[in-house]
Model the fold of this input.
Amino acid sequence: MNTMNTPHRSIPSISTFRRASRRLGVLLLSALPGLGLAGCMAGAFKAETTQSSSVADGKSLFVSAENGRVELIKDPSSAEVRVEAKVRCSGATQAEADGRLAQSRLVAVRDEAGCVRVSVEFPARSGVSWGWPDDSASITVRAADLSGIEVVTSNGAIASAGFSGQATLVTSNGRISVDGHDGPVTARSSNGAIVVSGVRSLSARTSNGRIEAALAEGAAGDVELDSSNGAVSLVLPASWRGVVTAETSNGSIDLKGGSVRKHDGSKSMTVGDAAGASAKATIETSNGRVQVRVAGATDTRN
Done:
């Protein structure tokens, strides 16, 4: 390219730039009605209500949620499975938000096996939905006892405490916390911390977040902890007997309470008599520190 004959262009002053920006802003605002970009104002109006339901003779629970927190609370005084949902809907106008809320409903039904199935149904959106925030529902379930729980939510935290049976907790984006559960627990989060204590066995996996786990006293089950990006810690009861294998791509590994062996990029620890070490604890993170401690073990680094 011949640059010798290129005419000189002066750089616009700041005041000129500001005047041009203001003119552009006015043009864009005046063009919005003609362009029909109501979606850009989506969610400016919201409506909210609380819906509740009770189901008798519930033995187990399945919750399917979209965009909202799910909390399971053990309540010995509850004769039924009680469900409460804080439902929120949005619209381009208040009338639309109110109309969507009026068409939304909490569903809680018991199937033939005694499983209480919970969800919130929202009306479908018509036309272009770009820019619209999702409707949401935060669900709280109270029950005296549940043997078997499953919660799946597309976006929201999950919390549970005090139940039994197989527990499966899955969220696309949110923290999972369990405070006591008499049975195997499976926890999956695409983006969020997993904090679990007082369980018999555990399989926990998150793509981005820390994992903190502590087995219940007397527990002897297997443990599998996997985080793509986050620190991982595990506390085993003194009664636990087995082999711990820990690996991290970037971080330290501290194992306390057993016979430790170093490997290439990983460590293993045998807890208790090697001949009777039947349980397994497998821990892996791509980026984070790994800490495993047997309750009552001395704080000696290895």
